[in-house]
Amino acid sequence: DGGITQSPKYLFRKEGQNVTLSCEQNLNHDAMYWYRQDPGQGLRLIYYSQIVNDFQKGDIAEGYSVSREKKESFPLTVTSAQKNPTAFYLCASRSGFQPQHFGDGTRLSIL
Amino acid sequence: EDQVTQSPEALRLQEGESSSLNCSYTVSGLRGLFWYRQDPGKGPEFLFTLYSAGEEKEKERLKATLTKKESFLHITAPKPEDSATYLCAVQAPGGTSYGKLTFGQGTILTVHP
């Protein structure tokens, strides 16, 4: 079945450590997105990519980095510069004017 | 700046008790309004897209409507399995067809048997 796979489901970060969240899609979608979700808040856009080797900052990109070397993959790195990384991270993809499809998220916590 | 406000923040219903969720938006040139359902610990699941005022979409017990300033998600005779967080999002012209979405904070719906 086509879909978006995020891994791991749970992730723990130590102080000063960078961690990378994986997002893979087999929907052949061109655009991919990373969102952060905090309790009581809507999804906030971190980064998005329209094509391979190109990506743009969203509303809260500070402390995060991404790459888009393959159409299917859009990993997100949470760097040590992100001082409040505890959140639920969601990856999405989209083709043209179709709705965005989401993965099942990665929950990141601080040790 | 695009803004989306959902109300109420939480809604408790008895099974069979119909109600509506509200999504008010401010956007310059609406390209689409989206409703999603999100279960705990899961990603949002797409429900509807509305493009112009007066448009309506239905799916089982859910019906979404759109005006120039807000959208309603009507739930008719809800069941406990309808319990979830319902998210509203708008897309404004973003220069390309891959424009970003602005989300509301969601409405947590609980349906008691």
What does this structure look like?
The complex is a heterodimer of chains A (111) and B (113). Chain A contains no helices and eleven strands. Chain A is an all-beta fold and 111 residues long. In chain A, strands 2, 4, 5, 6, 9, 10 and 11 form a seven-stranded mixed sheet that branches. A four-stranded antiparallel sheet of chain A has the order 1-3-8-7, with no helix packed on it. In chain A, strand 5 and strand 6 form a beta hairpin. The mean pLDDT of chain A is 93. With 113 residues, chain B is mainly beta. In chain B, the strands form two sheets. In chain B, strands 2, 4, 5, 9, 10 and 11 form a six-stranded mixed sheet that branches. The model of chain B has no long low-confidence stretch (mean pLDDT 93). Chains A and B meet through strand 4, strand 5, strand 9 and strand 10 of A and strand 4, strand 5 and strand 10 of B.
Catalogue the unreliable spans of chain B.
none
Q: What is the helix tally of chain B?
A: 0
Q: What is the number of beta strands of chain B?
A: 11
Mean pLDDT of chain B: 93
Strand content of chain A: over 45%
The main β sheet of chain A shows up as: 7 strands, mixed
Number of helices of chain A: 0
Shape of chain B: globular
Supply the helix-strand structural class of chain B: mainly beta
How far apart are the termini of chain B? 41 Å
Query: Tell me, what's the shape of chain A?
Result: globular
Order of helices and strands of chain A: EEEEEEEEEEE
Oligomer: heterodimer
Mean pLDDT of chain A: 93
Helix content of chain A: under 10%
Our measurement of the CA-to-CA distance between the termini of chain A, rounded to an integer number of angstroms, reads 35 Å
Give the ordered list of helices and strands of chain B: EEEEEEEEEEE
- Quick one: which chains have the greatest interface? A-B, 28 and 24 residues
